[in-house]
Automatic annotation (TrEMBL):
Keywords: ATP-binding, Hydrolase, Magnesium, Nucleotide-binding
Span list, region Disordered: 1-30
Annotated Basic and acidic residues bias: 1-12
SMART domains cross-referenced by the UniProt entry: AAA
TM annotation in the entry: none
Domain AAA+ ATPase: 283-421
Record-stated family: Belongs to the AAA ATPase family. BCS1 subfamily.
Gene: LOC104790497
Catalytic activity: ATP + H2O = ADP + phosphate + H(+)
Protein name: AAA-ATPase At3g28570, mitochondrial-like
Amino acid sequence: MLHKGENERHTTQLEIMSQPKKREDQTLQTHKTRKPIIEILMGSIVKPMFGNSLTTIGSNIAGLFFIWSTLKRSFPRQIQQLLLNAIQRVPILKKLSDKILGFLSPYAHISFSEIEERRFNFAYAAVKTYLGGKVNSGVKNLKGNQLKENTSLDLKRDDVTIEEEYEGVTMCWEILKCAKGKKICKLTFHRSNWDVVTGSYLSYVMEEGRSIEARKKKVKVYMNNPSLHWKHHTKGLWTSVDFEHPATFDTLAMDTEKKDEILSDLLAFRDGKEYYDRIGKAWKRGYLLFGPPGTGKSTMIAAIANLMKYNIFDLELTSIENNWELKKLLISTTSKSIIVIEDIDCSLDLTGERNGKDVKGDKEGKKKKALTLSGLLNFIDGIWSACGQERIIVFTTNHLEKLDRALIREAYCTFGAFKILAKNYLNLDSHPLFGKIESLLKETKITPADVAENLMVQDLQTEVDGSLNGLIRTLEIINWSQKLKADGQHSKEISQI
């Protein structure tokens, strides 16, 4: 028999020994009653506000999150992409999946569209060339192309998905063709590699693409489509074929000195970007080739194209309805190109017609004369001529005398205009030869453009005096020629009397 004190001690000991068991049961009960955070949120916030339906939706979304994370762990990236593409084929699911994946996905995307703001995107061309040029023994899909029998076979990669590594970063490319024929190159990468992609990788892709294009470039000749056949995007304005004319400056039959002069002028133009930037002038060059048929005007254009590796845009004015269409065509031409208007004297009756006004009520006449001489002059020298760089504009004519004088720039240079040109081209405010030039300009009819031609030099340190002396010789020759012409005209008038 236990004494009362012993009984109390025993009871106390039993209570103490049972406490850990009680705490364990309480902890277990707490774990059993704890709910996932999504259920707490749905129960305490969403359900009171929206009812059971949104609570069910929330639980389903939580389930989708779990399924998506399981898929990402269980399937390779290619299978994930196939599943995603299948889902996005259903219009209703596409919007929902885009929002969910945009929130969940750690990847970023950069797209290069072939046509951007109705203009051809040269970044797309560089990317497409770069991706097509990644040919090696591990590539399974290739396509071959051969332009002529005596040229080598050109192999290009023909995959719609291309994966590569750059500085340890995985880059995934897709070549897509969307609705209405729109073509896109799409780059996918992990967001954590943003600096690598935008910093050096894309610059590398652009440079490599342009380098490959330069090595494999084929000169093309473009012709403008009639305006009625234009599509909604820029590519519908021009049609092109490969240019295979064999003419070169070596095979060109013309005066040797004149040929060398033109050749030197073209090479200086090609390498003159800094020079044109310094003088504040658009990087373009204009030539007027004139003479009877068979004198080599078209052959000269072909030789220039083959020398410079510039594409030719053969502009047919008779298929253009107005100045707006002319501007649109000009904007859509590329840099490093030759814009040719052959037989300008026969293309349109532009002589003296600058305002497009017609006889009252003559609607057909208005339509025909909507393309005006002022529009053509803006094409040559106006603000629209600066929409692009490194371009040569060539006019040809069989009859120089039929052209409006504005087309051959007979607006004569004064000494004041010369001083501005000397400052722009030679950085000169004064020079001992200025006095003689001023005297000759008072007696000689020469255009500012022709004066500028004589002032264009690459080396200001050694060629300034030579440039000014060359201008003086040109002025003396023109002055002598004009005096002979005036004397001949005077004699003719006397004989008529």
